[in-house]
């Protein structure tokens, strides 16, 4: 069989599908082909955990009766292998049973009741005393090795990937546990979980291009949210002093190994705290997640170089995370640049020009510094690092530092050269916020489609009074990439965004 393609037109695939449809037709004639009255009482993992250490003789003397169900993945005549959500277990068919189940194919979902036994090789199996075909699979499974080499097919047809690829299942179990541990971490610290609108009249809380839709009944354009930030801070104004939301956000940007147009974040806000408190919290939470999900604070990632060779990198979450300012990070990774150059607009622009960085005329010194940082330092931040003191110009929602109003009390958290989180002491001066929104509107009018809108209601909320507050967003997809050693964001999103598949005769394909 060739590489798997659920829309295959190869004659061999068509022949196999036709054979299976014929078997289903026979089943329809003999009765209901999709029964729903079988109930299992054990899973593969449960049986292995309870009885895996028993000897063949001990199991025989116990006479344990079990009912299992799952997808048939291997058929070795007498011994077949069934896979459920926890793993695999064998079933044993006598010659008579083999004849009776000749219409079974790989991929079929079956139910079996029988005695739990152990083979001479030490493998658990269930005798097929009672058995039923629960769902007929009309499409053949891909070959174990050839069928999983098409990365695009794995993302597009995730259900097949999950059937065949244990590593994929492991990644998504880990992702689920990351979110579970995170939710528990917040609730144990008196944070209240809330929900805020995904469909908004004004998209706010981040600098990003939104998706636009139209509400027919109201007769207005609306936007898919780019961040829940401004709604969460409204709740803090209202008196919910610790809130968090595990949320989907949507940004109309390109696709890459780090970007998907819809992605998952956790955003949280804590009154009477500043960005230092949130850095402490983030360090402790990430360490806790690593320990509970992986059982260790040392995370190993494998990276492929341009020449095809691989590097192994170890990230140590057990040590204190380093904290560096934006300027200090630039200086560390650019020994030829001086602090004085970065502090002067003309000289900083010259540095950027020499580095080949394209600058726009309207950008100020803060934006120039960030461009230099992103081009020369960001990708070198391998071990867990907080980068602090972002310029006010690129931080329209963050509080300025009292001793240096050019920068804000803001940080971003990096591991492996990737940004994982962004947090800051919140701007709670309503008049200052209004001025910054106006500056963003001017940038939008000048052609920046990622600049923020003016949110009059949010300014009104601040006028009622936001207590001193710190807030943060953590990218769950990127954190999952890190903890599961996944090279692409598509590897940790069950159904990533894909270009529509071109059918035969309808275009040139992808």
| Secondary structural class | alpha+beta
**What is the CATH homology-level superfamily of the largest domain?**
Bira Bifunctional Protein, Domain 2
| Record field, number of beta strands | 21
Radius of gyration: 28 Å
CATH C-level class of the largest domain:
Alpha Beta
Describe this structure in words.
This protein has 510 residues and is an alpha+beta fold. 35% of the residues lie in helices and 25% in strands. The chain is built from 16 helices and 21 strands. The protein has helices at 11-30, 44-51, 56-62, 95-100, 151-156, 158-164, 166-188, 229-238, 275-294, 326-333, 339-343, 345-354, 365-376, 430-445, 456-464, 476-484; strands at residues 65-76, 79-84, 87-92, 109-118, 124-127, 130-135, 192-193, 199-200, 212-215, 220-224, 242-250, 262-271, 298-304, 310-316, 322-325, 385-388, 400-401, 404-408, 410-415, 418-425, 469-475. The strands form five sheets. It has an eight-stranded mixed β-sheet with strand order 7-11-12-21-20-19-16-15, with helices on both faces. A five-stranded mixed β-barrel has the order 1-2-3-5-4. The protein has a three-stranded antiparallel β-sheet with strand order 8-10-9, with no helix packed on it. Strand 2 (79-84) and strand 3 (87-92) form a beta hairpin. The longest helix is centred in the middle third of the chain and has 23 residues, at 166-188. The two termini are 23 Å apart. Keywords: Aminoacyl-tRNA synthetase, ATP-binding, Cytoplasm, Ligase, Magnesium, Metal-binding, Nucleotide-binding, Protein biosynthesis. Mg(2+) 1 binds at residues 412, 419. This is Lysine--tRNA ligase. One of its GO terms (molecular function) is ligase activity.
């Amino acid at each position: 069989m060739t590489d798997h393609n659920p829309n295959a037109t190869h004659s061999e695939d068509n022949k196999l599908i036709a054979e299976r449809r014929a078997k289903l037709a026979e089943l329809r004639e003999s009765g209901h082909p999709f029964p729903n009255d079988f109930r299992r009482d054990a899973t593969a993992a449960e049986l292995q955990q309870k009885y895996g250490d028993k000897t063949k003789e001990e199991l025989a003397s116990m006479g344990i009766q079990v009912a299992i169900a799952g997808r048939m993945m291997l058929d070795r005549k007498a011994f077949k292998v069934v896979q459920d959500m926890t793993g695999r277990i064998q079933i044993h068919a006598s010659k008579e049973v083999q004849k009776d189940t000749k219409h079974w194919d790989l991929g079929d979902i079956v139910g079996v009741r029988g005695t739990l036994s152990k083979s001479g090789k030490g493998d658990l199996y269930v005798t097929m005393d009672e058995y039923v075909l629960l769902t007929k699979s009309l499409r053949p499974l891909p070959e174990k090795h050839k069928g999983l080499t098409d990365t695009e097919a794995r993302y597009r047809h995730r259900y097949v990937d999950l059937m065949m690829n244990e590593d994929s299942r492991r990644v998504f179990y880990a992702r689920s546990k990351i979110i579970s541990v995170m939710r528990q971490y917040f609730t144990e610290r008196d944070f209240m979980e809330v929900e805020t609108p995904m469909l908004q009249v004004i998209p706010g809380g981040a600098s990003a291009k939104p998706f636009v839709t139209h509400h027919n009944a109201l007769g207005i354009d609306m936007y898919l949210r780019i961040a829940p930030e401004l709604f969460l801070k409204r709740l803090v104004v209202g008196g919910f002093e610790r809130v968090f939301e595990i949320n989907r956000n949507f940004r109309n940007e390109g696709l890459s190994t780090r970007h998907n147009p819809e992605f998952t974040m956790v955003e949280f806000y804590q009154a009477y705290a500043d960005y230092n408190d949130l850095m402490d919290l983030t360090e402790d939470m990430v360490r806790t997640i690593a320990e509970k999900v992986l059982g260790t604070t040392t995370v190993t990632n494998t990276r492929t170089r341009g020449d095809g060779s691989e590097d192994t990198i170890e990230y140590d979450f057990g040590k204190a995370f380093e904290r560096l300012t934006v300027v200090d990070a630039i200086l560390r990774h650019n020994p030829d640049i001086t602090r004085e150059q970065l502090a002067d607009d003309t000289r900083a622009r010259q540095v950027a020009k020499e580095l080949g960085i394209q600058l726009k005329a309207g950008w100020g010194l803060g934006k120039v510094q960030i461009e230099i940082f992103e081009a020369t330092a960001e990708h070198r931040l391998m071990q867990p690092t907080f980068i602090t003191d972002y310029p006010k110009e690129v931080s329209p929602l963050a509080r300025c530092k009292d001793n240096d109003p050019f920068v804000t009390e803001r940080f971003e958290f990096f591991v492996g050269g990737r940004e994982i989180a962004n947090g800051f002491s919140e701007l709670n001066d309503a008049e200052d916020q209004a001025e910054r929104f106006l500056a963003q509107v001017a940038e939008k009018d000048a052609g920046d489609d990622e600049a923020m809108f003016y949110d009059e209601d949010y300014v009104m909320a601040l006028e009622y009074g936001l207590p001193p507050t710190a807030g943060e967003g953590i990218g769950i997809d990127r954190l999952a990439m890190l903890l599961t050693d996944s090279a692409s964001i598509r590897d940790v999103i069950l159904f990533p965004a894909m270009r529509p598949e071109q059918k035969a005769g309808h275009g040139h394909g992808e």
